[in-house]
Amino acid sequence: MDTRDRGRRTAVSGGSAEGALPGLTPLLYEATARLDAHFAACATAVGLTAAQANAVYELADPVGMRELGRRMCCEPPNVTFVVDRLEERGLVVRGPLPGDRRAKQVALTADGLGLRAELLAKLAEDPPLRGLGDADRRTLRTLLARALAESDPAPTDA
Amino acid sequence: MDTRDRGRRTAVSGGSAEGALPGLTPLLYEATARLDAHFAACATAVGLTAAQANAVYELADPVGMRELGRRMCCEPPNVTFVVDRLEERGLVVRGPLPGDRRAKQVALTADGLGLRAELLAKLAEDPPLRGLGDADRRTLRTLLARALAESDPAPTDA
DNA sequence: CAATAATCATTCGTGCTCGAACGATAGGGT
DNA sequence: ACCCTATCGTTCGAGCACGAATGATTATTG
């Protein structure tokens, strides 16, 4: 269903590297897999791939390719690729970006806007991970934040 | 570093679909991204891609292609692809699987076994997500398990 | 102002992943 | 024995994602 499930390797990091508490890592992977699956299902429902739906989702307003890539969390070549597909289907158009002649501005067409509305509706229909109360969700968020903070993150500035 | 970071779309599922608690979904994605990054770094350190390292990791004993795919959480064509690369490098060999002439058995060579040992050593070196005490880890696991259990999982049987 | 460096989008090559279709073998029913 | 179905691994086509290199434009520096 999803673009590709990234070869979860739940057992890998969850095996010996986890110490005395097995099962945590697989759960993390499973959780993100659920989120991915939900998004991919909504994308498929409106006739898009997950990557394309991601682009459409982020195109609430016209932006340059670069900015779109930033929002999609991917590299420029990938943006070019995905936008190519959307443009072939008439869902977006590339135009000049005012104030910078080397950049291009991507904007949804009327069709694209309609599809985006459909996508948003689908996404809101049945969000996953609702099995927790508000207090539990807060605890979960706190724990995750702490786990990540005390771990070794990617250097904030290069 | 990773094979590809799957276009996280943290904002997507974390935006309106999350209700009154923003920031949970991005944290989940970030956590798995850390795990992926750690694994990919270890893979690169021993001269493998993440997918190849995943296969090598799972090849503790000789298995059929199908079983290997199951362990790697991916589809058969993918196993063929990855095993092809490993076989070209002399890290694995394909042989007949006793008792079933259409299946093949994949086994690590001596080189493959050596590389696997290196990989395991690297993986154990500095496992991520250690920033939590044992009690917090247990809580985290419990919460995740509950969130997933009460959500709508993939149908257990097709 | 001219030369250099930085940035933009693209193209190219490589790798990963999947679904569909294929030949080969295995197993069940008649 | 014979067919029919299921399974095994592979091949093929498509899409996603990245790093490196390119031409066009902008910004900076001398």
Automatic annotation (TrEMBL), chains A, B:
Transmembrane stretches, by residue range?
none
- SMART domains noted in UniProt: HTH_MARR
**Signal sequence bounds:** none
Give every HTH marR-type domain span: 21-149
- Cross-referenced Pfam families, in alphabetical order? MarR
- Lineage, top-rank taxon, reads Bacteria
Q: Which PANTHER family match?
A: MARR FAMILY REGULATORY PROTEIN, TRANSCRIPTIONAL REGULATOR, MARR FAMILY
According to UniProt, the name of this protein is HTH marR-type domain-containing protein
